[in-house]
């Protein structure tokens, strides 16, 4: 160890970690270093936010604010009916390492989602999820230095590898190696390393217990080596949400809204944004996410859809023949999309733009480019939709949603207008909420496992009062807690509070991020990871 190391607080992000996942690993002594933090420190459940998904939850964690303030609600940002992939310029509040920079505290940040393109601060940053495979880092050229020092460093693991557990574990290993290299070089007081593979494996192969355990063992090894090399005074472990199986139904909200008269459809148009279309038709080619030029086959498929031969009808026929899975594995997403019956955003009164947003957007006149709902009717339309959605029950007679509320119930701040108008929270997160149009409103969940609201937090160290506990910890509490361990005041606009186990350092006002929004995330690595996780349909 370098006796001159000044690492005061290490924040370890473990995506999707929760008691359901960790308990069997602790029981079998698979992750002794991680378990020791829980055993010797203080720990508990960490409530996630709405919506509890990666692209929105991590900015909430590292800003301490709800999406109505920081502005990121999912993997897509919308401007009217146009859309693109979110990046760090969509995060309109300061990250905790940027606040630390204002107090002359140096930070090293590795693999944290939605941090590309990086903003300048005292320290180093390698972006994580939603960044390109070869992203710009801070400072310039540092990724090349990391690769020279440790060998290959990938933002995204190789999903085509024969041994997925090994591929993901290799990616985890490089997170730890990169962090240690940068910590040696920059000697930070704050460090933040995030492990994404712990989430990805459950989207890819939730039944692969051997791969899951291999990934977590590697996380534990890297954590152990970081602790040994840099001896942080405090360690905080946090997840962005939990993970678990879907035991309910898939509910296709746009199909319900179509039958209720709110959604209008068209055949063969560009229609709703689907991540698969972005993946196959844009990002693989390195083009902007909203650029798209159809090939002859897709134009033919679109023409067939206009006369009624839609992808949905073809899919139903293939399903009856038992060929649907085989065809789906090889059919280009653009071809399927071109032939689909799709939501006509411009003519619909209300719709689901992306299932990740967990809600319905009203096509409001004066706000949307071709809004059809007059402002005078907004409240009435929203109330009718809320009442209708609250009444929806599954084929088993159980409520689909545990909460259907106006967006003000969850989001507040200057970015709230970008949120859905109606937030729909599935009951116990047992139901898969889909934006797709099918012939039926209900079906089996498209994914067997997905996110749950209850994540986890643990803290141990010199500035942690282990007896005080973590209380009713919330995702928003992590940023002010980290700042408190470094004696730095939290932003007075933060929605969270320091956990009971740390001594608060007060609050002060910090400026919001006012830079221009930009888009430059088109990359094969981005499309591959997001598509594999199934975040967008």
TrEMBL record:
Pfam family membership, one: Phosphodiest
SUPFAM superfamilies linked to this entry? Alkaline phosphatase-like (SSF53649)
Q: Which domain of life is it from?
A: Archaea
Q: Which InterPro entries match?
A: Alkaline_phosphatase_core_sf, Phosphodiest/P_Trfase
Its lineage opens with:
Archaea, Methanobacteriati, Methanobacteriota, Stenosarchaea group, Halobacteria
Official protein name in the record: Alkaline phosphatase family protein
Q: What would you give as a GO molecular function for this chain, any one?
A: hydrolase activity
């Amino acid at each position: 160890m370098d006796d001159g190391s000044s690492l005061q607080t290490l924040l370890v992000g473990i995506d999707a970690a929760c008691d359901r996942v960790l308990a069997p690993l602790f029981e079998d002594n698979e992750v002794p270093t991680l378990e020791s933090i829980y055993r010797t420190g203080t720990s508990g459940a960490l409530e996630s936010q709405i919506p509890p998904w990666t692209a929105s939850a991590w900015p909430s964690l590292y800003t301490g604010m709800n999406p109505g303030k920081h502005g990121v609600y999912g993997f897509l940002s919308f401007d009217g009916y146009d859309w693109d992939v979110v990046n760090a310029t969509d995060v309109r509040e300061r990250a905790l390492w940027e606040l630390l920079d204002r107090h002359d505290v140096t930070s090293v940040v590795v693999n944290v989602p939605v941090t590309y393109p990086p903003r300048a601060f005292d320290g180093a940053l390698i972006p994580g999820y939603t960044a390109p495979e070869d992203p710009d880092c801070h400072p310039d050229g540092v990724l090349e230095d990391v690769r020279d020092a440790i060998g290959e460093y990938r933002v995204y693991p190789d999903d085509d590898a024969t041994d997925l557990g090994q591929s993901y574990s290799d990616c985890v290993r490089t997170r730890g190696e990169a962090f240690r290299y940068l910590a040696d070089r920059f000697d930070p007081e704050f460090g933040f390393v995030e492990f994404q593979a712990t989430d990805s494996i459950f989207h890819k192969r939730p039944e692969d217990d051997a791969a899951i355990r291999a990934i977590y063992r590697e996380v534990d090894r890297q954590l152990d080596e970081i602790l040994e090399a840099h001896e942080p005074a405090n360690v905080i472990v946090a997840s962005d949400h939990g993970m678990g199986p879907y035991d309910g139904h898939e509910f296709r909200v746009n199909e319900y809204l179509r039958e209720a008269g709110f959604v209008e459809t068209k055949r063969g148009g560009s229609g709703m944004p689907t991540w698969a279309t972005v993946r196959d038709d844009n990002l693989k080619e390195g083009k902007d996410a909203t650029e798209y030029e159809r090939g002859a086959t897709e134009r033919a498929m679109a023409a067939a859809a206009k006369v009624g031969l839609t992808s949905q009808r073809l899919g139903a026929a293939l399903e009856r023949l038992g060929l649907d899975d085989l065809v789906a594995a090889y059919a280009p997403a653009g071809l399927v999309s071109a032939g689909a019956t799709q939501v006509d955003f411009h003519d619909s009164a209300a719709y689901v733009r992306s299932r990740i947003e967990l809600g319905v957007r009203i096509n409001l006149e004066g706000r949307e480019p071709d809004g059809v709902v007059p402002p005078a009717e907004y409240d009435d339309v929203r109330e009718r939709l809320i009442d209708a959605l609250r009444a929806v029950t599954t084929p088993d007679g159980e409520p689909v949603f545990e909460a259907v509320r106006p967006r003000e119930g969850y989001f507040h701040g200057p970015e709230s207008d970008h949120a859905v108008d109606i937030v729909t929270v599935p009951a116990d997160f047992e139901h898969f909420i889909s934006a797709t149009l099918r012939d039926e409103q209900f079906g089996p969940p498209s994914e067997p496992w997905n996110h749950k609201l209850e994540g986890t937090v643990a803290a141990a160290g010199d500035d942690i009062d282990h007896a005080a506990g973590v209380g009713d910890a919330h995702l928003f509490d992590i940023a002010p807690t980290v700042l408190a361990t470094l004696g730095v005041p939290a932003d007075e606009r933060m929605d969270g509070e320091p956990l009971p186990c740390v001594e608060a350092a007060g609050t002060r006002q910090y400026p919001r991020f006012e830079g221009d929004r930009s888009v430059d995330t088109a990359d094969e690595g981005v499309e591959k990871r997001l598509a594999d996780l199934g975040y967008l349909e």
